[in-house]
Amino acid sequence: MARVFITGSADGLGRAAAQTLLDDGHEVVVHARNSDRLEAVGDLVDGGATAIVGDISDLDQTRSLAGEVNRLGRMDAVIHNAGVYSGPQVMPVNIVAPYLLTALIDRPQRLIYLSSGAHRSGRAKLDGIDWSGGTAGSYSDSKLFVTTLAVAVARIWPDVLSNAVDPGWVPTRMGGPGAPDDLRLGHLTQEWLATSDDADARTSGGYWYHQERIEPHPAVRDQRFQDQLLDALARWQRGRRTAKLCPRVALPIAGAPPRPPALLGLGFGDRFEAFRGGSGFFEEGVQQAEKSPELQGKRSTKRSSRTT
Ligand SMILES: NC(=O)c1ccc[n+]([C@@H]2O[C@H](COP(=O)([O-])OP(=O)(O)OC[C@H]3O[C@@H](n4cnc5c(N)ncnc54)[C@H](OP(=O)(O)O)[C@@H]3O)[C@@H](O)[C@H]2O)c1
């Protein structure tokens, strides 16, 4: 049995994945944006899920949410599912929150990020991106970024299985009632990557569509772009953190090269930035040092049945 946290599980694919995983006997932590939306996960809670709350378009709430998750104990898998299609929350919800939650949640064995075929029309450019949500963001760009994040994490955390999933165009609130793809297949791959012992499901750095590994936009595998993205997100969230939630701490990284002065004492949430060693980013040892009180917070075979 695995312990799985799913963001945005009040509706759509997140909710469906939560239900399936619960039915399969896994321990599931569901997530609603606020206490009003808890009602939408009431039946999942009745079925044994634990519910936590936080609006992930808000940085402080996202950080607190990470603390809540950590208080529950280490997850085996986190599915970064919550997403919005348009408007000012696109960047905060679709990429900033997955980045921050990845950085702040005690490292699970598996990470799954919801991407989209639309990531292929994303622009691999970071100049002028409004991470704050002050202006409407491009969905395609955000999905290119989160796919890149998934593959970057696979590179910098070799002990974690990190993958991105295109669920297809499926009939959820976001997909609309006329979406042509199969809803069951839309959440199967992330459940499988989160819990299966299949050899394929235990690989990392993939971009998946209906349990098949396919090639993403070339920028996703460009290490320079990966590093630029992580740099941009680290720099941006650092400027936004509040003193209360983010005490300044040094990063005790055993055996690591000296920290560049510009990065010293940057503190909480900077688990991705930090060092550029011979092979790029790495950031071991931050977890225990950077916990403010607020942040203390099987399938065995592939399936392809069309059940919904
Ligand atoms: N459906 C498709 O055809 C399709 C295609 C490609 C990729 N995707 C991706 O698949 C993922 C799931 O999509 P979906 O179709 O299931 O969408 P959905 O039906 O609109 O559900 C999205 C979920 O995310 C939650 N959420 C959004 N903003 C949030 C916030 N600020 N704080 C907390 N929760 C928030 C929503 O909460 P509320 O219910 O409270 O709003 C909802 O539970 C997304 O990442 C999407 O981009 C979907």
What's the short version?
With 308 residues, this protein is an alpha/beta fold. It contains eight helices and ten strands. The chain has helices spanning 12-23, 42-46, 59-72, 90-104, 139-156, 183-195, 223-240, 286-289; strands spanning 3-6, 27-32, 50-53, 77-80, 110-114, 161-166, 207-209, 212-214, 275-277, 280-282.
Structure commentary:
With 308 residues, this protein is α/β, with parallel strands linked by helices. It has two domains: 3-220, Rossmann fold (3-Layer(aba) Sandwich); 224-307, no CATH class. It has eight helices and ten strands. The chain has helices spanning 12-23, 42-46, 59-72, 90-104, 139-156, 183-195, 223-240, 286-289, and strands spanning 3-6, 27-32, 50-53, 77-80, 110-114, 161-166, 207-209, 212-214, 275-277, 280-282. The strands form two sheets. It has an eight-stranded mixed beta sheet with strand order 3-2-1-4-5-6-7-8, with helices on both faces. The chain has a two-stranded antiparallel sheet with strand order 9-10. A hairpin with a 2-residue loop joins strand 7 and strand 8 (212-214). Helix 1 packs across helix 6 (183-195), helix 4 (90-104) packs parallel to helix 5 (139-156) and helix 5 (139-156) packs across helix 7 (223-240). The protein is globular and about 45 Å long. The relative contact order is 0.14. The structure holds NADP nicotinamide-adenine-dinucleotide phosphate. NADP nicotinamide-adenine-dinucleotide phosphate is lined by residues 8, 10-14, 33, 37, 55-57, 81-84, 89, 93, 114, 116, 167, 169-170, 172-175, 179. The site of NADP nicotinamide-adenine-dinucleotide phosphate has 27 residues, from helix 1.
